[in-house]
Amino acid sequence: MEVLYCPLLKLREIAERLDCRLQGDGEIEIRRVAAIEDAAEGDLTFFANPKYHAELTRTRASAVIAGELAEGAPCAVLRSPHPYLAFAKAMELFADLWRPPPGVHRLASVDTTATIAADASIGPFAAVGEGARVGARTLVHPHVTIGRGAEIGEDCVVHAHASVRERVRIGNRVIIQDGAIIGSDGFGFARTPEGAHYKIPQVGGVVIEDDVEIGANAAIDRPAVGETRIGAGSKIDNLVQVAHGVTLGRNVLLAGQVGIAGSTVIEDGVTLAGQVGVAGHLTIGKGTIATAQTGIPNSVDPGSFVSGYPAIPNRDWLKSSVVFRKLPELRKTLAELEDRLRALESKLESK
After folding, report:
1. Residue 4 predicted with pLDDT over 70
2. Quick one: pLDDT at residue 35?
3. How many CA atoms lie within 13 A of 87 on its CB side?
4. SS3 category, 58
5. Closest CA to 106 of 124, 127, 126
């Protein structure tokens, strides 16, 4: 794990800011956050997974964030009922807070009809189209394209080479990673009598609600009519495809290379692990979890835990996967039994 540096902080100050119970010397000075196996004097680390208990007992860190029942730390401890969450907040304390000054860089291209908040920052070679709006404290990095009539809210970060297409609406505190495309054309074609594919104009909208993060090189398409919507608090990993007219609920997690076909509804709190594929015009019920590489051709009930293709309950998939590995052996055994059966039938017929 990369280590992060900032001015020294007293351990008692960190405990107060993280709402942790301090066990040890509050005057210890912490200079960085580090992984438990790499930490040294002056470092803060964390312990949340029991399988790393051996590393906890021999860590050289000056302090560790741990749960209320964790034992064996040879250093000061910040006790928290949610140590991983406390660790995430500690990372914020030590994160690189650099940002460019507000204003429009002289090498940016901003249409005269665009509205840019006074404390927003538009980087070099960014392009902001006609009638677009960029909210307060939003940071637009170099080479970003913001299309005609697009709206970006407050406290957003749009990283280099991202494209926010025309009329896309983005809420507050949204993070868009490098190369993501928001509002690209949906994959919609009508077949002509001659067998050619006639493009259907994709003129619908895309709405990204508050506190969403969109990973690098992800693509979120617009539909021909209606809208594609990403619900508040949802997090989308790199290389994810969200097709035209899809609706994601709140706090959805989409891991790398997930693909969701058009007009599907993903309800609140769904988690789709890496390379999950979801067919179109389905509903994936609230709280569903699909493990990596699951293929989902049918709607899924709320609270389901599914795996495999076609997706079935995870427990059934685990049982089936054991059988899959034994199929060659079972086939051989079946062939031997068939041979024995034929031999017995021949003997009976000859009598």
Report:
1. no
2. 92
3. 20
4. coil
5. 124
What rounded mean pLDDT belongs to the chain?
A: 94
> Can you read off the two tokens belonging to residue 26?
């509050």
Q: Using N-to-C axis directions, what is the helix angle for 11-18 and 83-94, rounded to 10°? A: 120
Cis peptide bond upstream of 313, omega within 30? no
Q: What is the pLDDT of residue 185?
A: 97
SS3 22: strand
The two three-digit tokens of residue 208, written as one number = 């990204």
DSSP 8-state code for residue 317: H
Confidence band, pLDDT 50/70/90 cuts, at residue 142? very high
Residue with tokens 């312990």: 47
Considering the candidates 141, 143, 161, 244, report the single residue annotated as catalytic: 244
- Are the C-beta atoms of 176 and 162 separated by less than 8 Å? yes
Instruction: Tell me the pLDDT tens digit for each residue of 308-336.
Output: 999 999 999 998 888 888 888 989 999 99
Residue 351 predicted with pLDDT over 90: no
103: pLDDT strictly greater than 80: yes
Give pTM, 2 decimals.
0.88
Give pairs for 36-39: CB < 8 Å, separation 24+. 36/61, 36/64, 38/1, 38/3
The C-alpha atoms of residue 203 and residue 340 are separated, in whole angstroms, by 67
Q: What tokens were used for 255? A: 């891991």
Residue 281 annotated as catalytic: no
Query: How far apart are the C-alpha atoms of 167 and 153, rounded to whole Å?
Result: 13
- The contacts of residue 149 (CB under 8 Å, 6+ apart) are 129, 130, 131, 132, 166, 167
In the structure encoding, which two tokens stand for residue 68, read together?
């209320």
Backbone angles phi, psi at 20, to 5 degrees: -105, 155
